[in-house]
Amino acid sequence: MANRVLLDLEENMKLPSWLEGEDKLQVIEDFIYKVMKKLRMNKREVSVMFCTDPFIQNLNREYRNIDSPTDVLSFENGSKYTDEQGKWLCLGDIAISVETLPKNALYFEVSENEELKRLLIHGLLHLKGLDHGEEHVEKNKEPVCKMLRIQKKLMKFFEKEEII
Question: Residue 86: how many CB atoms within 10 A of its CB?
């Protein structure tokens, strides 16, 4: 089983310590591969960009008509291509705000490690075609919709993973 993960950083962004160094990016990339495998994805390509609040706010404004920063955005692609390694499905792109992530961690009373895993899993589930409608993850509230229940199960499955 093979997948492709492309990681990128917003240009000139001040990096949080957990993103400094090639080895840190590799650990995050490896985690994404593990989640994709658990989701039974094969021959799929995703890209993840780590960015600032102003960057993600611009995306949120342009694509969702919401003029505020957010923690994670997913943009489905669905295009297919063939190369020397076979046929691929480009699932799409995930943007994660490195400035909102620690705020979320404080709100949910979790580590930044746990919050990053949640945001990555959340983005991948959207790219897999799942949606949560108006329901969002809330502190001390059990999820009702299918997507957020799957997210919770994946978080439990990967709870021991240290990615930052």
Answer: 8
Encode pLDDT of 81-114 as tens digits.
999 988 999 999 999 999 999 999 999 999 999 9
Long-range contacts: 64-72, Cβ < 8 Å, 24+? 69/97, 69/99, 69/100, 70/97, 70/100, 71/96, 71/97, 71/100, 71/101, 71/104, 71/119, 72/96, 72/97, 72/119, 72/122, 72/123
Structure tokens at 77: 């692609």
What is the reported pTM?
A: 0.94
Radius of gyration for the chain, computed over Cα atoms and rounded to the nearest angstrom: 15
CA–CA gap between residue 32 and residue 34 (Å, rounded):
5
3-class secondary structure, 65: coil
The answer to whether 57 and 69 are in contact (CB under 8 A) is: yes
